C-alpha cells in the first residue's frame, strides 16, 4: 500500500535534503590559507678562514740593534786574497827577499806609491839603492812614471839600507792622473822587475 507523505513527513524530508546539499556544497578551505608557522629555512654559514703563517710579516728590528746575522758577519774577519801566494810570491821571496808588494794611488791620484816588505836585506838592497832610478810603466796609459825629487825633501823614496821585517816605500809622480786604479803596471828598479801589479 502506497502512503502519501503527510505534511510533517514532507517537512522532515525537505530538511534532510537541504542539510545534505549544504554538506556537499560547502566551499573547501582556501589553499592560500596556510599555517602561520612555517619550517625555518636553514642558512649556510661560511667557514671562518684560518690565519696563514706563510705570509706572516717579519717583525721589525728596532733601529740601532743589529740582527744575529749581522753580528756574525761583523765578527768574521774580512778576507783579502794574497796576490803573491803562488809562484809569484815564491819568486819574489826567494830571489829578491821581499814580499807584500802593493801599488796604491794617493793624494787624489796625483801620486802612485809602491810598498814592499823586506825578508832578506842582502837580496833586497837593490830596491833601496839610491843610485838606481826606479820607474813605473803602465802599458794601458802608455806612460812611464819616475820618482820626483823635491828641493827640501829630496827623492820621494827610502834609500837607507833595508832591515829584515820592515816595510819600505817609494812614490811616483802621476801628473795628469794618467795611471788609474785597476791598471796593471810594472815596477822596474835596475834588474828588479815586478810585472802585472794592480793599482789599488
Descriptive report:
This protein has 4 helices and 9 strands. It is of the alpha+beta class. A 4-stranded antiparallel β-sheet has the order 4-3-8-9, with no helix packed on it. The longest helix is centred in the first third of the chain and has 18 residues, at 7-24. The model is unreliable at 21-39 and 76-81 (pLDDT under 50).
Second-tier CATH architecture of the domain at 87-198: Sandwich
Q: Looking at the structure, what is the overall shape? A: globular
Give the radius of gyration: 56 Å
Largest sheet: number of strands, sense, barrel closure: 4 strands, antiparallel
How far from one another are the termini?
Answer: 153 Å
- Identify the CATH class of the domain at 87-198: Mainly Beta
Estimated structural class: alpha+beta
**Uncertain runs with pLDDT below 50, 5 residues or more?**
21-39, 76-81
The CATH topology assignment of the domain at 87-198 is Immunoglobulin-like
Q: Averaging pLDDT over every residue, what do you get?
A: 76
Q: What's the number of helices? A: 4
Q: What is the β-strand count?
A: 9
Record the strand order, biggest sheet.
4-3-8-9
Query: Strand percentage, roughly?
Result: 15-25%
Query: How do the helices and strands follow one another from N- to C-terminus?
Result: HHHEEHEEEEEEE
- Percentage of helical residues? 10-25%
Amino acid at each position: 500500500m502506497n502512503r502519501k507523505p503527510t505534511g510533517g513527513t514532507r517537512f522532515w524530508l525537505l530538511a534532510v535534503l537541504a542539510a545534505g546539499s549544504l554538506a556537499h556544497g560547502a566551499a573547501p578551505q582556501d589553499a592560500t590559507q596556510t599555517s602561520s608557522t612555517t619550517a625555518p629555512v636553514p642558512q649556510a654559514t661560511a667557514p671562518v678562514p684560518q690565519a696563514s703563517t706563510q705570509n706572516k710579516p717579519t717583525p721589525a728590528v728596532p733601529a740601532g740593534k743589529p740582527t744575529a746575522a749581522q753580528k756574525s758577519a761583523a765578527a768574521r774577519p774580512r778576507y783579502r786574497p794574497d796576490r803573491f801566494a803562488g809562484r809569484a810570491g815564491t819568486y819574489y821571496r826567494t830571489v829578491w827577499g821581499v814580499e807584500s808588494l802593493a801599488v796604491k794611488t794617493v793624494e787624489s791620484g796625483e801620486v802612485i806609491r809602491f810598498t814592499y816588505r823586506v825578508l832578506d836585506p842582502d837580496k833586497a838592497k837593490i830596491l833601496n839603492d839610491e843610485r838606481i832610478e826606479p820607474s813605473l810603466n803602465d802599458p794601458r796609459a802608455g806612460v812611464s812614471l819616475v820618482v820626483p825629487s823635491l828641493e827640501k825633501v829630496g827623492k820621494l823614496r827610502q834609500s837607507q839600507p833595508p832591515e829584515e821585517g820592515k816595510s819600505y816605500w817609494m812614490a811616483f809622480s802621476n801628473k795628469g792622473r794618467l795611471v788609474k786604479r785597476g791598471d796593471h803596471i810594472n815596477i822596474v828598479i835596475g834588474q828588479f822587475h815586478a810585472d802585472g801589479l794592480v793599482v789599488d
